[in-house]
């Protein structure tokens, strides 16, 4: 990166919204554009190995997202950085031609995973609109850099607000159960609880087959200084029946406007068990205007072979088939409240 470029990035990163979060959630440790490439932490290997996949084209970023190099909220951050990559490769001024090329790049990366594609495209479209409305004499790459950094800071600021509404509902010594990796939501819940002096304990499911809970959620808990207990995906009901869970908190890949929640497969059964045991279930995120109804949510089906393996090693005999829907949908009657930037809402109040 040139000296002028470094100065610009220093200015953009002033007052960055990831301050205080676990290192795993800092911008550069998720996905980051620099020196002609988007560098994405390879979450398929972390924490056993800390390696990065370097993408030098928008198509390579798309493939990295599809191949699960990054997951959860990391998909959005990688997509944001793909816009910067395209803009720096395109060069030129902030003109209509460059903006149209950027929209095409956004379509490529947004469609890497079907369930979240409408939301990701909406986010990228907002960034592009902001860049398009900047001074036309501004270099194209600089306009996109600024728009992306503003969007990233806003996303992190928003999730701090969203998390704070949930923490408001917790007792002084909460035992929180979460499923998969709620990324910024769980990061800020843990941080805010610590700032407020709550003695929070985190319970996380391992989350087969990619083990996001075992590898990512537990990492964020340890880096935040919170006690963490790891359980297998089949144990939540047992803990609830023993009175060891005070609240369930998850993020959502999609929240429809009629209150249905699409999240990592397994969320539905946890929500049903929480309802059975009168344990509140809080969801945090952005309701999606691209999904008016729960029936509009497309459930991504991934390679069934993934279910037959752990860490690349087959665990089932030959002849056994797998089935792998990446998400399931929890109906609104099982959700206590959805935390949004506008406050805590009932699932039928969106």
Note down, in words, how this protein is organized.
- By secondary structure, the protein is of the alpha/beta class.
- 39% of the residues lie in helices and 16% in strands.
- The radius of gyration is 20 Å and the shape is globular.
- The mean pLDDT is 93.
* First and last CA, distance: 44 Å
Structural class: alpha/beta
Low-confidence stretches: none
Give average pLDDT, whole number: 93
Portion of residues in helices?
Answer: 25-40%
Shape: globular
Largest sheet: 7 strands, mixed
Calculate Rg over CA atoms.
20 Å
The order of strands across the largest sheet is 6-5-4-7-10-14-15
**Total number of beta strands:** 15
| Beta content | 15-25%
* Helix segment tally: 10
**What is the string of helix and strand elements?**
HEEEHHHHHEHEHEHEEEHEEEEEE
Quaternary status of these chains?
single chain
Layout of helices and strands, plus pairs?
Elements lengths: L2 H10 L18 E4 L2 E5 L10 E4 L2 H9 L7 H17 L5 H15 L6 H16 L7 H28 L7 E4 L4 H13 L5 E5 L6 H13 L3 E4 L4 H6 L5 E4 L3 E2 L5 E4 L2 H10 L4 E4 L24 E2 L2 E2 L12 E4 L6 E4 L2 E3 L5
Parallel strand pairs: 4-5, 4-7, 5-6, 7-10, 10-14
Antiparallel strand pairs: 1-2, 2-3, 8-9, 9-13, 11-12, 14-15
Helix pairs in contact: 1-6, 2-3, 2-4, 3-4, 3-5, 3-6, 4-5, 5-6, 6-7, 7-8
């Amino acid at each position: 990166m040139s000296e002028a470029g470094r100065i610009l990035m220093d200015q953009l990163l002033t007052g960055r919204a990831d301050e205080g979060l676990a290192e795993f959630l800092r911008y550069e440790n998720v996905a980051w554009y620099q020196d002609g490439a988007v560098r994405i932490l390879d979450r398929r290997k972390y924490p056993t190995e800390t390696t990065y996949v370097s993408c030098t084209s928008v198509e390579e970023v798309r493939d990295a997202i599809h191949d699960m190099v990054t997951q959860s909220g990391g998909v959005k951050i990688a997509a944001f950085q793909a816009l910067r990559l395209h803009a720096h490769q395109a060069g030129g001024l902030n003109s209509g031609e460059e903006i149209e090329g950027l929209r095409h790049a956004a379509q490529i990366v947004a469609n890497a995973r079907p369930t979240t594609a409408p939301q990701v495209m909406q986010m990228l479209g907002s960034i592009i609109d902001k860049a398009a409305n900047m001074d036309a004499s501004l270099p194209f790459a600089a306009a996109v850099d600024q728009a992306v950094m503003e969007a990233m800071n806003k996303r992190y600021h928003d999730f701090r607000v969203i998390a704070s509404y949930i923490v408001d509902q917790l007792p002084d010594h909460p035992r929180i159960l979460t499923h998969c990796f709620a990324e910024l939501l769980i990061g800020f819940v843990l941080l805010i609880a610590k700032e407020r002096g709550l003695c929070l304990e985190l319970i996380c499911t391992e989350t087969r087959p990619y083990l996001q809970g075992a590898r990512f959620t537990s990492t964020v808990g340890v880096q935040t200084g919170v006690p963490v207990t790891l359980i297998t995906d089949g144990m939540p009901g047992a803990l609830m029946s023993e009175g060891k869970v005070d609240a369930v908190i998850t993020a959502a890949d999609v929240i429809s406007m009629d209150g249905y929640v699409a999240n990592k497969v397994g969320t539905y059964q946890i929500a049903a068990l929480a309802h059975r045991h009168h344990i509140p279930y809080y969801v945090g995120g952005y309701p999606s205007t691209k999904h008016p109804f729960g029936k509009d949510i497309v459930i991504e089906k991934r390679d069934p072979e993934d279910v037959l393996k752990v860490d690349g090693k087959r665990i089932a005999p030959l002849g056994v088939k797998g089935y792998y829907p990446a998400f399931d949908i929890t109906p609104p009657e099982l959700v206590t409240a959805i935390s949004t930037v506008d406050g805590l809402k009932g699932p039928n109040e969106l």
